[in-house]
Amino acid sequence: MSETYLQQLGQRAKEASFALANLTAADKRELLQAIADSLQSASNDILAANAKDVTAAKAAGLDAAMIDRLLLDNKRLAAVIADIGNVIALADPIGREFDSRLLDNGIRLCRRTVPLGVIGVIYEARPNVTVDIAVLALKTGNAVILRGGKETVNSNLALAQAIRAGIAKFGLPADAVQLIDDPDRALVTGLLKLDQYVDMIVPRGGSKLQRLCAEQATIPVILGGIGICHLYLDKAADLSRSTSVIVNAKVQRPTVCNALDTLLVHEAIAEHYLPQLAATLSAEGVSLVGCETTRQLLPAYDVRSASDATYRTEWLSLTLGIKVVADLDEAIAHIRQYSSGHSEAILTNDITTATRFMNEVNSAAVYLNASTRFTDGGQFGLGAEVAVSTQKLHARGPMGLEALTTYKWLAVGDYTSRS
Amino acid sequence: MSETYLQQLGQRAKEASFALANLTAADKRELLQAIADSLQSASNDILAANAKDVTAAKAAGLDAAMIDRLLLDNKRLAAVIADIGNVIALADPIGREFDSRLLDNGIRLCRRTVPLGVIGVIYEARPNVTVDIAVLALKTGNAVILRGGKETVNSNLALAQAIRAGIAKFGLPADAVQLIDDPDRALVTGLLKLDQYVDMIVPRGGSKLQRLCAEQATIPVILGGIGICHLYLDKAADLSRSTSVIVNAKVQRPTVCNALDTLLVHEAIAEHYLPQLAATLSAEGVSLVGCETTRQLLPAYDVRSASDATYRTEWLSLTLGIKVVADLDEAIAHIRQYSSGHSEAILTNDITTATRFMNEVNSAAVYLNASTRFTDGGQFGLGAEVAVSTQKLHARGPMGLEALTTYKWLAVGDYTSRS
User: Fold this and answer.
1) Which CATH architecture has domain A2-222+399-412?
2) Looking at the complex, does the CB of residue A380 fall below 8 Å from at least one CB of chain B?
3) B267-281: pLDDT as tens digits
4) Min CA distance, A42 vs chain B (Å)?
5) Where do the Aldehyde dehydrogenase domain residues begin and end (chains A, B) (predicted)?
6) Single pTM value for the model
7) What are the pLDDT digits (tens) for A370-397?
8) What span, in angstroms and rounded, lies between the C-alpha atoms of A175 and A414?
9) ipTM
10) Topology of domain B2-223+391-412, per CATH?
């Protein structure tokens, strides 16, 4: 039964994608406005549905942070709807022709950006993702199949219903946006194998979800969002300006993927600098896990002993790994071994050291004298963020609208044959 | 044991990829020249190894076409080596910086093209692929793991040995190119799951290999090379010029992926045109499989009856499917249902019909008034062809050097924190 359900879901999405593929930029702006209006009209229903989710979450004993993540109130819902206006204002990446050339046989060839077709997105907790992803998909002419977390199923249903009503009012198939609301996990693995209809899967969630998608999907998957981020403090860094950057990378928002996980410190400055850094971090509530040298240099700070597993941990909390390294080579080797390919930074005033780090560290984002916290579609000026990719094909780092497009080759001849 | 072998293979490839990543364009030209020289020196050994494969193939009763595919002689080997010169002459896509921007916080941000890292390529029969792929991978700074067909294992070993000797002579790790020569199929599935080390898998082979990769790989796979190609002959086509294009698409090289599989004919011209087309195709040795209307219009040509399975067949031979359609809508609907997303063409002089076809048919290559046979890296002016992708992420259609690259984001601040 679930197979039939998924087949129909896929067929309807593919069918809807044909209707979306050739909309003009103006059409899509109007479509998104219709969705914003529909969400506005349905605000009371959406908030009521969200209240049900909140009640259920409390009854299930979810912690306060989790409940806050899934909560919608008037102000948050208004912000979600207002964000649609920002997406409406973005440039439309579809329909651009590039790499145009005249071949020797007279054929005129070019590439044209087109939608991917059907995108599947699997996500957790926050209900605003339902709106964000639907809007970004439609802006780029794609149909989308959404699978949210079970904690927000009522909110997601109400949001999807309003989005679909807006699409229908505009005169397009409502199935351009479909939500899988059945909590059966077999539907997730089934979705991952729907390669006849779905062109790309974006998992937005933790490492277990990413791994499930990598292992089960027969559809291309954009892995991402797991950041084991490093900052290498070189001996030639301006130490008087370094502490604020390290604190920013670790403390400003410790629960996100671009927060700092491991600090690598050049041994020549460790003895002098680590005690003053530890004092500042400690005042910010950061607890430390360090190598033996770090522990010896910081006897007052109860530094736990770091293991191989420590360095493979994305903390997502106010914990920081620290390792004293002999030189740049050891720092780069450590990053190559333990990084998830998300974001790495170096602090140094030495141009040779800086250049080698930027060249030899190969992560999605590499920073010189800046916090890792900037790896974000908004911060990078992309106007939107679908996800942060940590794999190397198609899109790397923060994914803007461009990542939801592909191209086709168009060739115009004059009854031309190949000789 | 095979797991340890694969882990070591992956580790060595990854290690070599670090040495390759920051070579200059001049370095890589010299590296490829060293490989060409090494292959030249080893010519006798390579031809002797190939003779063993040919003898074994004859003993195993392989057909003449297959034996011809795996045969190397002096002339063919010289051509393979000469092709390295063409790759040396191509522009190097690595190290280009683009999308540079100055953010409001003073960070200067850009993207830089970098190698993917380690590429795994699984291929069949023709030994020249061993050289082609190794050279294209190295040109773009990638390490490569090769897995050829068992019919050419001696040839591939001799070629890989010469390539590795050339790399070592240039002063880089020979493990930049590694060949899996053990015929154990578990090594293929193992390679597909080596995601810790391998960044991309390119299967160059038939639909069974493609499917295996889609289902088993935990590494991103570039599917491709399966072409169920359509040509729609519109009622407004110049019929006097159409026959040569149709014949070219079907007959010029029927065994390749961009050859024509199904001809769709507008019903208004079918009665007049199909008999004359059938006469020409028949003279070229083409046998026909058609819809009921086609069969009625061509009683003299022994047209077999087409089924759903017919239209899902990539013929790779002198067989052509023919279907008479009511209009453009039916042609587009047929293509959407049966195409593998490779190449489709329309012949028409009507600009409205042509525009709709180009907009609404979404395959890797869409042709107006030209043969489908042009879908090829060389024909498209890419200078090289890694494979022809029929999926939508990363690369679509003929893949040139660009498809072996990714980018990283580089950000330079002044001890900049996120506010």
Assistant:
1) 3-Layer(aba) Sandwich (3.40)
2) yes
3) 999 999 999 999 999
4) 34
5) 10-282
6) 0.94
7) 999 999 999 999 988 889 999 999 999 9
8) 40
9) 0.95
10) Aldehyde Dehydrogenase; Chain A, domain 1 (3.40.605)
